Structure formats: C-alpha cells, structure tokens
Fold:
Amino acid sequence: MAWLILQRLGLGVITLVLVSMLVFAGTEILPGDVAAAILGQNATPESLAALRQELGLDSGPVARYLAWASGILHGDLGQSLANRQPVGELLWPRFGNTMALAGYAAVIAVPLAVGLGISSAALRGSFFDRAANVVALATVSLPEYFLGLLLILFVSVQWGLLPSLADTWSGMGLAAWLQATTLPMLVLVLVTVAQIMRMTRTTVLAVMDQPFIETACLKGLPMGRVVLVHAVPNALGPTINVVAFNLTYLIAGVVLVETIFNYNGLGRFMVDAVSKRDVPMVQAAAMVFAAVHVVMNMLADIAAIALNPRLRHPRVKES
Amino acid sequence: MSHVLQIRDLRVEAPDGTVLLHGVSMDLNPGEVLGLIGESGAGKSTVALASMGYGRGGCRITGGEIRLAGTEMRTAPRQTREALRGTRIAYVAQSAAAAFNPAMRLERQILEVPRVHGLMNEAEARVWMTDLFSALQLPDPEHFGRRFPHQVSGGQLQRAMIAMAMAGKPDILVLDEPTTALDVTTQIEVLRLLRDVIRRYGTAALYITHDLAVIAQIADRLMVLRNGREVETGPTAALLDTPQQDYTRLLVAERHGSLTASQRMHNPGKDELLAIEGVDAFYGRTQVLHDVSLRLNRGETLAVVGESGSGKSTLARLIAGLLPPARGEVRLDGACLPPELSQRDNAQLRRVQLVYQLPDVALNPHQTVGEVIGRPLALFGGLRGRALKDEVARLLDQIGLPACFAARLPGALSGGQKQRVCIARALAAKPDLLICDEVTSALDPLVAEDILRLLLQLQDELGIAYLFITHDLSVVRRLADRVMVMQTGRIIETAGTATLFATPEQAYTRRLLAAVPELRTNWLDEVTAAH
Structure:
C-alpha cells in the first residue's frame, strides 16, 4: 500500500510539472505585449525595446521557463510587471482570504451535504428524500452569479440583513468578518451542497443494494446502525472524491462569487492581473490554482487507497 | 408439542403484482430440519425470508399468518421484527463472500449480533464466538475473527457465516443454499460441520436447496415447492423412496439418473483436431497453468474437471485466444494458432466457439435473439436478408425453440432458453470445437438435463468436438469420452471416462469422486465414518 501511495505522490509531482509548462505556454501565447501595455500610448520603439530587455522578455521561451520554474522551487514567484513588487507579497494574503472564505463555506457545506445525502439515502422515496432532491436540483441548476444576485436583492436590498459587498481588511474583528462574508459563503454553500449531497446519496444507495446490507438487516440490526456502520464506511471512497472536488471548487472556482461580492480573494487577484497583462502575477495565480487541484485530487486518491480494506490488510499466505 | 415456526396460507407478491406464493403452510418443530426443495422461482427463498418478516427487493407479504416465538411476524411492528431477527431466527446466505461487509473484521460482524440485541456482554459473546469457531473447526479459533472477509478461503467464510448466524443463539436457522457455491470436497466438509452444529445446539432449520442428494444428508422432512405452491411434504427417506406426486417423481428420477447414468455409446473420430503442447500461462506474476498438454480428436468430448482455482477456465481462455500463453503452443488441425485473439483470422476464430456459464451476462440485453444468432452468420457466412432469416430460424429449430423467438429480447427468456440461444450463437459459426465452460451449473437440474441432452444430440448430428469444463462429475460420466483432472494449474490425470471412474489412479481424483453426494440419507455418515 505504501508503494501505491508513493506512486500516487510521484504522479502528483509529474502532473504539477506538466501543469507549470502549460501555464507558462498559455501565458506565452496570450495576445498583447506587456511592455506596450505598461508604457501605453507614450511608447516609442526605443523605450519598448529597453523595457523588454529589462523585463527579460527578449530571451528564449525555454530559458525563461527554466528561470521561472526554478524561482518557484525556491519560493520566488517573480516580480509584478505593473508595480515592481514581489508577486509573493501580493499573492499570499489574497490566497489567505480565499482560503478563509472556502474554509467558512466548507465547514458548513460538507457536514450538511454528507448528512443530508446519508439521510435521504436511508429514507429513500420518502417525502424528505424527494424534497431534498428537488431543492438540490434547483440550487445546482442556478448559476452562482444568479444565486448571488438573488441573495443580494433579497437579503441585502429588500431586508437589509447583510451587506452586499464583502469588504474585508486585515485586523478586522471576527464578528465583522463573518458579517461581511456570510452572503458569499451562502452562495458557495448552496452551489456545493447539492452536488455533494446527491453524490453521497447515490453511493450510499448503491451500497445499500449489496447483499451484505440485507445480511445486516436479517441480523436484526436497527436501520440506523445498518446505514451508519455497514453502508456508510463502504461508500466513503466516492464520497471523499466528490468532497475533494467541491473543496477544489471552493478554492479555485470562486472567481465569479468574488467578483459579485467584490471580495479580495485570489480569484479577483487573477482577474485584475489578466486585465493588466501582468504575466508573472497571472502565472503565479494559475500555478496556485493548479496546485490546489492536483493536491486535492491526490489527497482524495490517497484516502481511497488507504480506506480499501484489501490494500490495508493484504491476504496472508496460508502455510 | 409447540412449533417454533408456524406458517399458514402465506401469500407474497412482487412489487409488480406477480404472486410469488399462493398460500403456503408449514410447521417446524424444535430442533427439526425441514428441507425446502424445488427449482428457481419455486418460492423457496421467499418462504424462508417471509418467515423472518422480510421481503427481498420490495416483495410484500399480502396474506396469511407467520407465528414465530409466539409473535405474528406479518403484523408485528418493525422493532419487534428486528428484535426477533438474529435472536430467534437467523439467516445463512448462499454466497458468504457477498454477505459479509468487506470493510469490517469478521469478529466485529459476528459479535455485533449478541451485543446489539443485548444477549451477552462483550466477554461472554467472545467466548461464545470462539466456541462456535472451534465447533466449526476454523483455524486458530481465538484469533480467526481478527481477519477480514477477503483474508479467508471460501469454505472458511461460509463457516464464519454459520457462526455469525449462530451468534445470537437462534431457535431456527434459515440456510439458503449454504453449500452450493462451494467446491465438492469443501461442500461435504461444510455440510458435515453444519449438521454437527445444528445437532449439538438443537437448532431447527429451514434448509433451501435444489440438490436432493445434499438435502438427503441433513433434513428430517422435505417440502417440495413449485411455482409458489406446495407440491408435497413428507419425511426425507419416504419422500425420496416413494414420491407421491409426478413432479417429485421427476425430480427424484432426474437426480437418480444423473448419479447412476452410465456412459453413452459414442465413437469419436480418430483425427486429431486440437493439440496443446507444454503450455505455461500467467495472470500477472502468478503462474496459473504449468506445462499443460492435451489432445482432442474430431467429434470427441474431453471433460476437464477440478475445483475452483485449478485452471480449468484459464485453459478455455487460452484455447479461445483470450489469454496468450507464456510458453508452449496451441495447434488446430496441425496448424499453430496465434496466441492472441487479434492475430487470428476469421477462419480460425470461426472454428473455435465458447459457451459460458452464465447465459444472463453472455447475451447483450438490447439485442434480439435473431440479432445475437445472426451476427456470426453474417460475419462468417456472409449471409444477409432472407437467407439470414431462414438460417436463424433453422438454428432456432435445431436447439428446440420456435422461430418466433428471433424477435424476442433476452429479458423475455428463461435461463434454459437463454443458454440454448448461446449454444445456437456458437453453432451459427459452424465450429469444429465447442468449449463449454460450466454451461449447466447455473441452471436448475431439470433444465440442465435438457441442455445436456441437446448437446449430445447436436454432437451426434454435427460431429463437433467438445471441451467440457465442469465441476459436476455426474455430467462428466454421461457426456465425456475422456476426462482430464486438473489441480492448481496442472493436469494430474487423464483417462477414458469409464476407466477413470472405475480405477482412479491419483489420490486427489479418488477424493473428488468420493465427495459427490449420493441420494441416500446415510451417505454422509458413511463418508464421515470412512475418514
């Protein structure tokens, strides 16, 4: 089993290297010229050439990729082209903000969704099951910007309960922070709960059709024990996978939500960097998002390997 | 005397309204073993599960009375039914491998019964479990329960399932084909231990099986069921010796016939059709065939027998090109067959056909019978249109199905009819060699009997050679010209059928032959005494 996990870790590293090449190549073929963007209308051919040389834009792409990649390995994400500050200093606080919002949403969404999924599987066909499914389908079908605008319209504008802008600053109190971020958190919860819940329900139901569940029922075990002790542990693998997928979304897919609520996270950071053609910032943000994807998927796979009883307790050779 | 279980006029319906049981009644005395026999669809499992107040797959108990330990199970609230399950009546499934939770140690699943029902404290339950493990002769009874289901053999797991059922000290065990999935030699061992345990603890049992020879060893009384109705009930010996109803007579005669049938008159050809020379084969790094060689003449039937894991099916896959050998060669009519399926040409593919054990999964559920049979006709024979239709009709006639079946989907066919379609599909290619991999093991005895007769008749008409893989020695005796015995990937003995049954040379072959149950109520005692 240790070997399988090591293999998976190795694969993760290889994926990251490939992703870094893609990110670099992707920003390379972006239209437009940074130097021209920085200098704007005052650009003369001489000043453009000078700036390009200063920024290292005139050396070959392979050399620039290697320099950039080795920088990342040493924790140096490069320098912003727009304001000449180290990218890391600008990026990590924003990443922290994104993680805080994702964490806030995850703490509520994951237990809620998994609990709802298990309950609706256990009560298959009941009113609760059908109601939960209808609501889940409704929320998953609405795009998050529409959900966000609906919440703003009612919760902020009509009822005036929560602010529509998620303004945060360092040093603000927890209560104020929670008040500012609850609305975007709600949108994220609504979007992720549905998917986790439906996937959990489906996997638990698939396990409930297995003969060993019938055995458990025929042993006279109460329904709650049958579901929690016998069905759920066998449904963990796929459930962890869908949870990891949604956690990834909470961190790396929140561009729209951050934009709607004007939240100072990594998503908006990247949008701003793209509009300024600030290539090192875009590359760094893309790498962080990619790393989140790779790491979360890797963790889910490792969890699935670690939970498989056949791998955890290999067959001993009979003498 | 009071009955531990009393069923009156029990009616059960499937979710779609089909009536599965049309009023079945029975009484079970304390410590008595009642055998429920009949073919699939007879309602054996339905009766047994209904006695636990349980309907499988949404089946509903729609009428009658089930009195268990003084409680009316049909109308009892859910909590009452749960309290009785495991403590008064417990269930042993056919496939222990599927019936155990794969993610939990055996002991946790076994101890859970007395613990959840509050029958014993942890220490008492553990002592009782160890007692049961010892009684069932499981290795290292103190620590056996630490293992996970996948860490023990099939026979051990089936015994662990019996221990789990006994864990709540029930009055009644429901045994649903508990030895059917096991190899013959394992089967008698489990059967013997099961009988010892039942006798030692005075447990009553409902024993479900379609194998009369097995039930004869363990049941006090037998009840024959057919299509959800009772055919007859009586003491085991009396019912087997002097059945009163025609259907019972048919069942008994079939089993007698299969056990005592002598070899048929058959003169196979003298030309070599198939030859295998010194073949080794691997699954990954595990060697599954060791230096296997064999010869098969035109029109000959060679039976391959052995227990699960002996390499029988691997041999079939190898000949069919599904598993390339690591060493050695396969020759058809003197010409070497390419090891890989993809390298064989149409003529080579056509001449070797395979019929599988499970007709349910071997047929595409979305293709009609006509499409299934027509595909090889179009591919190998180039037939289309009218000619194709006529040929499909002819093949259907040959395997004993009416031509109108061509329009049906497999879902509308019975198990035996599906297997006939699989045979017709193989015949459509006009093969020289038909590999039959346990083609009758998934079928009811009477249906299997018809399929065997069909295969014999086809061989007489068409002169096809059969490589007949089976673990059922009674089939071998009737069908095979020669028999090859395999054990752990090696051929240990090959002989003419009559010779092998009369004078087996290897100890393992003798053990296999001795393990086939006979239709006498004292057979198991004799075998046990002989050891």
Remarks:
- The two ends of chain B are 38 Å apart (CA to CA).
- The CA atoms of residues 11 and 63 of chain B lie 5 Å apart.
- Chain B has a mean pLDDT of 90.
